[in-house]
Automatic annotation (TrEMBL):
UniProt entry tagged with the keyword DNA damage: no
Name of this protein: Methyltransferase type 11 domain-containing protein
Matches recorded under InterPro entries: Methyltransf_11 (IPR013216), SAM-dependent_MTases_sf (IPR029063)
Species annotation: Kitasatospora putterlickiae
Lineage: Bacteria, Bacillati, Actinomycetota, Actinomycetes, Kitasatosporales
Domain of life: Bacteria
Amino acid sequence: MSAPDDQSAYWNSTGTTKTYGHPLHTAWTARLARDAALLDYGCGYGRLAGGLAALGFTDVEGVDVAPEPVARARAEQPAARFAVLTDPPRLERPDGAYDAAFLFAVLTCVPDDAAQRSLVAELHRVLRPGGLLQVSDYLLQADERNQERYRRCEARYGCFGVFETSDGAVCRHHTRERLDELFAAFEPLDERELAVLTMNGRPAVATQLLLARR
Ligand SMILES: C[S@@+](CC[C@H](N)C(=O)[O-])C[C@H]1O[C@@H](n2cnc3c(N)ncnc32)[C@H](O)[C@@H]1O
């Protein structure tokens, strides 16, 4: 497929006007020690990292490819640390550095197959064996508006599920098989579906996965 793997210009400009809404599942965060080393990958303006700090977690780091939201995160969430990724998905951390990682509404912003695989491989590298990965993202949506744009963009991007938003992002919704393949190096522990609003304020169904690094 030929979807762009670098959309940092979008996330640093138009993306700064968005509000994100995938919620933390506190039944899953309750499994973590309060001093666990936590990574919020694709942290945006620090919504989740701030939420984790507010829950009492003392070692929370957010990273993102876009400097503008990271600057906002630093200003609004002083209880967490933030860094800009200069060579995503590479993290300047040793193998097994984190006890848990969060990947919320980020895969949808990385439509390219190879870029998704590299991102997940890097998370696997920096998680300790048995470390937890919490993912929140989108399976293919059943409604006609989404189905129509999947069909319209399939030939251009070579993948059913990739689509263009009206304001210039290229995003992806996933087949179940795609997520299973991406996270094959993780053990599935739990899963749930929930209603969310997308960054453009539209209702959608999100899927959340709780995975353990093998
Ligand atoms: C939809 S937002 C979600 C932000 C945050 N996870 C939340 O739920 O509040 C997606 C974020 O992923 C970031 N992003 C996109 N591609 C990325 C990549 N390859 N590496 C790191 N961050 C990326 C964007 O800059 C944006 O801040």
